[in-house]
């Protein structure tokens, strides 16, 4: 009896390379293909995944441009890739019993997968047409990882100087395509920071950690650290959070020239807030815009095996989304080779 095909809902997001300043005139797809066609250690970079391993955080974890579209398609309109993040350590925790089993408790066990193994932290899929990028983020591999990887890859190939970086802007709009053209105040709702005390039991703590992984870099403490709070002050503040409690924050950002607020063009939102959830943002200008912001994104059904998306289908659905946005005039994207 054949297995029933499985699919998962996946969100395809749109990004676009920021081509101002040092990157003016750069075309992301052509540069990426050019670097992959170069030779290193007697191999072409695009044909040897070992040459595409980068330790971004210098912590023994590795980000790899693992799967790429066939080399004979690279001169076409679109390049597709799969980015994977592997973490060091052979010990993982898992339930190995069947979930169909009748039991009063499922046993959580440590499993040694071997000293040579690297555990998959997450996967991201992307497609590039000129400077237009569609991507499907993984649970722990977000768009900023793709930015950092491409930056490191191009710096290694001496296409970017130290300090230059790849920035992939999001595209924000207001619900109904109407919104403020300029803003004077930006309000950001940071994610709550929970008590570090394990007062809610193992299962609740595991769920909390899973939720915090999604919001890494957006908590109240992350914002306070960016504002210059020293670690000692943050540690003291965290000690004041009662067991089971949390600290929340609402931050207002604006620019002033003498006593007057400077109006900020909406395009600045696309870069500065590219990694934020629109639901966390509020804009103030000639009126107010709150809760109606949307990122250019679409949900697609992608073939899957277990929790992993099928790479070929994921890439195909991303290209499909780019073509749909181009056909409706939402992006200026052409698919001629």
Q: Characteristics of this structure?
A:
7 helices, 337 residues, globular
Give the helix/strand layout.
Blueprint: E1 7-17, H1 28-36, E2 39-40, E3 43-44, E4 53-54, E5 62-68, E6 79-87, E7 91-95, E8 108-112, E9 119-129, E10 132-136, H2 143-156, E11 168-169, E12 172-174, E13 182-183, E14 185-194, H3 202-214, H4 220-226, H5 231-239, E15 246-253, E16 256-257, E17 260-261, E18 264-265, H6 267-272, E19 281-285, E20 287-290, E21 293-295, E22 297-305, E23 308-309, H7 311-327
Antiparallel strand pairs: 1-10, 1-11, 1-22, 2-3, 4-5, 5-6, 6-9, 7-8, 9-10, 12-21, 13-18, 14-15, 14-19, 16-17, 19-20, 22-23
Low-confidence stretches: 197-215
Integer average pLDDT: 79
Number of strands: 23
Q: What integer value in Å does the Rg equal?
A: 22 Å
Along the chain, the helix and strand elements come as EHEEEEEEEEEHEEEEHHHEEEEHEEEEEH
């Amino acid at each position: 009896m054949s297995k029933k095909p499985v699919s998962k809902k996946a969100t395809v997001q749109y990004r676009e390379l920021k081509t101002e300043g040092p990157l003016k005139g750069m075309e992301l797809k052509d540069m990426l293909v050019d670097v992959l066609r170069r030779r290193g250690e007697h191999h072409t970079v695009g044909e040897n995944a070992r040459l595409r391993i980068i330790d971004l955080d210098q912590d023994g974890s590795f980000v790899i441009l693992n799967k790429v579209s066939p080399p004979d398609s690279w001169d076409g309109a679109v390049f597709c890739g799969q980015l994977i993040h592997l973490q060091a350590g052979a010990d993982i925790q898992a339930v190995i019993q069947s979930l169909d089993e009748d039991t009063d408790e499922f046993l959580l066990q440590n499993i040694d997968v071997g000293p040579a193994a690297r555990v998959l932290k997450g996967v991201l899929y992307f497609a590039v047409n000129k400077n237009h990028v569609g991507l499907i983020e993984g649970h722990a591999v977000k768009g900023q990882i793709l930015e950092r990887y491409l930056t490191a890859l191009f710096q290694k190939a001496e296409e970017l100087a130290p300090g230059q970086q790849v920035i992939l802007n999001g595209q924000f709009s207001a619900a109904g395509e109407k919104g403020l053209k300029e803003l004077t105040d930006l309000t950001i709702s940071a994610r709550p920071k929970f008590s570090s005390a394990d007062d809610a039991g193992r299962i609740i703590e595991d769920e909390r950690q899973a939720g915090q992984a999604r919001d890494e870099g957006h908590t109240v403490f992350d914002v306070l650290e960016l504002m210059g709070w020293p670690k000692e002050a943050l540690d003291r503040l965290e000690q004041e959070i009662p067991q089971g409690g949390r600290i929340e924050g609402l931050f207002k950002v604006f620019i002033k020239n003498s006593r007057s607020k400077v109006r900020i063009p909406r395009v600045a939102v696309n870069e500065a807030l590219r990694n934020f959830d629109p639901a966390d943002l509020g804009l103030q200008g000639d009126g107010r815009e709150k809760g109606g912001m949307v990122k250019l994104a679409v949900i697609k059904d992608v073939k899957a095996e277990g929790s992993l998306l099928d790479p070929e289908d994921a890439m195909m659905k991303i290209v499909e989304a780019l073509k749909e946005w181009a056909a409706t005039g939402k992006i200026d994207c052409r698919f001629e080779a």
